[in-house]
Write a sequence for this structure.
């Protein structure tokens, strides 16, 4: 995989701002290259851009896109389209196959997505067959996809960097 | 591990309702037994109780708890306390150690947590050294802790159950 991006659809500005921001930050922290958002939401853009500026890397966010156009463009360039959905097949079955693709687009819906997506996507994948969160689904999927290599990725251009709190209790 | 519970602190009802609900649902979906919430928030309780009723299992939610009391009780019963924080040590270093403990309490803070927690916790662990989401941190931590065994857990008492959408494109 040379490029892994997220396409977030169905975002409702007032209701979903924080969840979509968390989706974007999780995407970045777990190794994706950027996120397309169908809705224009300057608050989400600001939050994510601010993190990228301070914490480094090249994660992009592009808003107001047409999901049809993005999917078509990715497909024309040989991109592989994965739709994250509770109704998909268990994701672990398909990680090896997905990892071989040079360009992977991961679609993350909010409440409801157009039914046609199930047919357009190359794969419909679920992360557990239980209801939880698009933030947890995406993070766990990316962690498996990158096989944990993303967990200690360094960002040379970061102005902010965590130094772990080391004073563990005596004896540890 | 016989018992893994979440202690969510610093929840602000209006602002954090959806995120805390996602934390609870992710906790359940990724194998935890229940969640304590320091703030009383009937909306969060309803959302989570509703999922448990329809989707099965025994995940509990208890609100209005004192975090000091919960931690003290867990420690008195030999519980192991893990604090999820961006400022912690990389979590992967400590999964083997944590897995050996019979009772594990995972503290998930909202924006800010009392500084004293860093000293009270047996371990302060981070999931990547980047800012993202308590939902993604918790899910990825639990997925590693349970080594993926939670991913296809069945709930015999569920009234709702997903049948994966199987009509993949011809040739797959």
């Amino acid at each position: 995989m040379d490029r892994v991006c997220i396409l977030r659809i169905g975002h409702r500005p007032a209701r979903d701002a924080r969840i979509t921001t968390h989706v974007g930050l999780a995407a970045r922290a777990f190794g994706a290259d950027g996120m397309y958002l169908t809705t224009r939401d300057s608050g989400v853009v600001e939050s994510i851009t601010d993190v990228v500026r301070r914490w480094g890397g090249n994660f992009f966010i592009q808003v107001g896109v047409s999901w049809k156009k993005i999917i078509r463009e990715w497909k024309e360039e040989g991109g592989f389209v994965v739709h994250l959905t509770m109704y998909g097949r268990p994701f672990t079955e398909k990680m090896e196959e997905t990892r071989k693709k040079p360009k992977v687009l991961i679609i993350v819906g909010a409440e409801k997505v157009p039914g046609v997506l199930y047919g357009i996507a190359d794969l419909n994948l679920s992360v557990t067959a239980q209801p939880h969160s698009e933030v947890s689904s995406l993070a766990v999927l990316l962690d498996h996809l990158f096989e944990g290599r993303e967990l200690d990725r360094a960002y040379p251009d970061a102005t902010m960097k965590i130094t772990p709190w080391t004073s563990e209790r005596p004896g540890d």
